[in-house]
Each structure stands twice: as C-alpha cells, then as structure tokens.
Amino acid sequence: MVGMWKLILVIFLAATSFSASYGQSIETDASSRLEHGKGLLDAGKTDEAVEVFNQVMETGSTTLALYYRGMAFSVKGWQGLAIKDYTEAIKQDPGQAVYYARRGISRLSLGDVSEAILDLNKALELEPSSSSVMSFRSRALMMSGRPNQALDDINRAIQINPSNSGFFKLRGDILTSTGNYDKAVNDYDRAIQINPGFAAAFNNRGIALAHINKVKEAVDDLNAAMDLASSRSGNVRGSGFPTTPW
Description:
The protein has 246 residues and is mainly alpha-helical. 78% of the residues lie in helices and 0% in strands. Helix 1 runs antiparallel to helix 2.
C-alpha cells in the first residue's frame, strides 16, 4: 500500500513539473512571437504583424497583443478597430498611460476631439511629464477652438523637449490660426533649423509668409515643401508614445 502511494506521489510530482514547464514554454513562445510582431510592425509589415498578434492572443497573452494590434490597425487607417483594441487593453490594464494616449490619437484622427481630449487628459494624469502627449492634447485643443490652452500645452512640451522640431511646427500652426503670422514664421524657422527636411514646416511657413505679403519667400517654401514631400520615405512607427501629432 505504501508503495502504491509512493507511485501516486511520483506521478503527481511529474505531472506538476510538466505542467509548470509547459506553462513556461507557452509564455516564452508568446513573448518571442510578440517581439517578432513588433519587429514586423516597425518594418511597416502591418498585415503580417496583425497575424502574429492574433497568434499571441490565442496563447492567452492578450493585453500587449491587443495594444500592438491596435497600433497596426491605426497605421492601416482602421481607427475604429484600433480603438476597440485599445479599449480592451485598458480594461485589462487600466494603469498604462500609453494605452489612453494611443486611443486618444485614434479618436483625434476620426475627429472625435472631445473624447480624444479625455483620453489624453487621463494619459497625462498617469504620465504628467510626457511632452509628446502634451503636444497631442495641444493639437486637440486647437482643433476644439481653444488656442490659448493649446499654447499652454505646447509651451510646456517645448520646455521639456526643446529639440523636437514638431513641437515648434505645432506652435507655429497655433499662432497661424490666431493670426500671429510673424511669430509663427519664427517657430517654423526653428522647426526647419532642427529638421531641414521637414516638408510640413516649409509648407506652413510658406502659408504664413503669404499672409504677411512675402510672396517670393512663400513660393520658395511651398516649392521646397513639394520637393521634400515627393522624396519622403515611410516613417517607422515606435511602440511607445508617438512623438508628434502630424
């Protein structure tokens, strides 16, 4: 009888060991697949990335896979699907600022400005020093007709990260929207100084220059913008906070 109990104990321990090692194997495989999917996403292979994230979710590791699949959908322009994935990721892990930020950006892309601002508010509540989220909220506030609040956000973002050309371009856009064309030109100058290949900054500086009757300089800028845009290569998407709202 004692021998029988020993045999049962051996079988139980063997089964427990197998179960633990099998679980670790699944977890390792999911992590490996997730990294592979992120690599595909960064390379612009969104369809393949979505397939990999689907496979990861089949293993039960869903939260990060949902987030990254949402990013892939967003890159493809499928903002509604992206929002669904970000929302589910938030339900599973509500403490991640980047989930709210990405959902807010997708909502902003759809023109749902008020909901976007709520998401970006939450992201900044969780990550108060994120200059990139400040810049996106600044864009949203400008779109909602609140230029002074938009300027407050982008000024803070520039204080935190004064080497981001996109922040100066955005402040130039806000100043242009309020008729402060000379100040806007100064900001576009700074954006182009930081990033000489910034087509949108050339374009918008050209528009501002036209408003102050500097026609030749405006035409030169608009031509430069078209040349740069025609030679522009695709941008690699990072997996954390996006850097600029344009």
